[in-house]
Amino acid sequence: MKANRFVTVLIVLVFLVGGLFAQGQVERKAVEVKVLAGVTGGKDDTENALFEKEMEKATGLNITWEKPPSGYDQVLMQKLGAGEVYDLLYLNQFQMYALANQGALTDLTSRIAASSVYSENVDPDELAKIQMNGKYYAGFNKLEVFPLVNVNKAITDKVGINLNTLNTLEDYYQMLKKVKNYMENTVGRKPYYPFFTYMPDIWDLQPWFSSAGVRRGVFKDASGKKYAPFVQAQAKPVWEWLAKLYREGLMDPASFTGKTGDMRNKMWQSQEIVMDVDWAAWTGLYNNNAMTAGTYPHTVNVVGLPGTKSPSGTFMLEQGGASLWAIPANAKHPDEAFKIIEYMATKEGGLLLSAGIEGYDYVIQDGKLAFTEVGLAHAKDHGAPFPISTQFDLGVLGTMNPGVLESVAIGKRADVEVAPMGYADGELDARKYYDIMSKWMTDCIMGKMSADAAMRGAENELRINSLID
Amino acid sequence: MAKQLVKRDRLPLPVRIINTALLIFVVVLMGLPMLNVLAVSFSTQAKSDTPGLVLWPSPATVQGYTFIWNHVRFAVPFFNTIYVSIVGTVLHVLMASLAGYVLSQPQLPGRKTLTTFILLTMTIPYELTMIGIYAVNRDLHLTNTYAGLIINGMISGFSVLLMRNYFMGIPRSLAESARIDGAGEIRIFRSISLRLSISALMTIGTLELIRRWNNITMTVTLISDMKKWTLPVVLRYILFDQTTTSGTSYIFANAKMAAVVLTAVPLVVLYFFTQSFFSTGIMIGSIKE
Lengths: 469, 289
Prior knowledge:
The complex is a heterodimer of chains A (469) and B (289).
Chain A: H1 2-29, E1 32-36, H2 45-59, E2 62-66, H3 72-81, E3 88-92, H4 93-101, H5 109-114, H6 116-121, H7 124-128, E4 139-140, E5 147-152, H8 153-159, H9 169-187, H10 206-209, E6 217-220, E7 226-227, H11 236-247, H12 260-268, E8 275-279, H13 280-293, E9 302-305, E10 315-319, E11 323-326, H14 334-344, H15 347-354, E12 362-365, E13 368-371, H16 373-377, H17 404-410, E14 416-420, E15 422-423, H18 430-445, H19 451-464
Parallel strand pairs in A: 1-2, 1-3, 6-15, 10-14
Antiparallel strand pairs in A: 3-11, 4-11, 5-8, 5-9, 6-7, 12-13
Helix pairs in contact in A: 13-17, 18-19
Chain B: H1 2-9, H2 13-41, H3 45-48, H4 63-71, H5 75-103, H6 111-121, H7 126-139, H8 146-151, H9 157-168, H10 172-180, H11 185-193, H12 198-214, H13 217-222, H14 231-241, H15 253-286
């Protein structure tokens, strides 16, 4: 009997304590802003907790910064599919289009228009790039950089080439020919294929198609008709130029089968190529890696170039797809979530998303940032190596990898147009587009068919798959 | 006589030569990538990114190992993986052998229906159940817990059926004699069935340990708390998610390969110890009704 009473009292106590605990949780959760983050945040658990605290300190909110370990896209869809409620989501541009089309995202147009933070920190041209049917469904995570032509100046200097004079396809062709001749006949590296371009996804071709004034992807004309500029008549000389490079042994045959990693290693590690098209950040990484190997700058000194001039006299580069922050339509705290979006667009937010956390990644010494060992390992990248705020001065991050600032600066030149590929207002199935284009155009470059035939074939297949009208 | 038999059983010399050559070819084919991974992991940062096949580190260094151990704090995911793999495997083996024992009893009502039902669970692709699994775990508060990683997959149709088949191969007379001597079912299960099924237990144990050790999908589904990341998840993060596009951080190939070696070594060691049980268990289990 006594035992029964004891058990009853124990059960009641457990329920009471449990109830109190649950009550506490409910109250705490009432102001909790839930964030599902992709790449942005701490690099490990300790740093992610510190990152969360920094974000809370800056915004005055109670934030849960959830950063899945891997496979973010899968996790995102799984959680949304299971009805998980978040206040803020990290998305890429395609995901934004897909979710906005389903009505799953909050329209941020009026908030962004009314935001003094956005008007003071975000370039209106950048903002226009993430518009969807005249509306905004997301804010920025970072400033997207762009792939540009990277050339190993250590080699071209030996050949006596002035890189500043390269503006046309013919200029680059002549440069590659001279380098090939020098490497094969003077240095004795035979065969030498000086140029690598990653063909499987036709990623890195924009600086060449600039000469024809066309961009990758699918666009809509004024009547809403979808078209793919890379298969239109004006693109033909560029395909023929690429085929010529291959035919004359100027393009690395591994371009059709190799990975980006192979291309990069050939560039800085073995100097098996002299030119590729890679991200602006990689100009610096090439040189930094070469520095580690002791080959910078005498053997490897990579510099960024804008590519070829378009008929209108500008250099057309392709911006990376935006990484964005969106508020789901079912978010419990949209106002608080927007406060976080705004903070990330400030220069202070930019410092957190690039340099990291003060006292952990860096300390302030004599008014300047001095990076800790951890900070150096994190390479000034906590989600936004290039913050979106126009007021953010990359110079505060101290010494950057050699060449990177110059490459990034190319994007700001008046004669350079940096814009994303054509997404057809989010209707493009990019995977299909890449596959169709690389299949046909690889045959063209390898000389298996003429440029005309390949472009016609690609166009037909794009149309059959409803990618173009 | 015995010598004659051995001689008669031997394959003709040309066939043996071809056989040996083929085996050597397969070993080289499978061994080269492993050797390459090992050699790159002990190479210097600069050498490790050199295009081409590296089969010997020159000069050899543990730079990659120290970098990866410090850079991603490899110790935490390492011990997380050991914990969830071992506890999960022990529970898995226990549950599979209990269920297998019950299913092997000839007098069990609806035995065939139950077996068919268990077989059916093996035909549903995991991808179809992913959202459901996440939702159930979330509602049971199992997300971001070790318990979630242990409980999910605690029982599988394959292991249950393997144990059932194995138990059915043990002569029933043994259990009947024990019953006559007054032993209960638990005693028969523990003292006879389990003791005679060591190779089957080791087989499902090894298979389960390997599965748990390498499990990425379930961990990614349930865990976002970085403290509870496991090795394969960290490995994927290092090998793929850290690949710089427009970012500024870069991990050299020697550190990436060091992570691969650290992740794989425990399993290789385990396999050395369990391979004899493993082959016996999987063969015997497979030929029973």
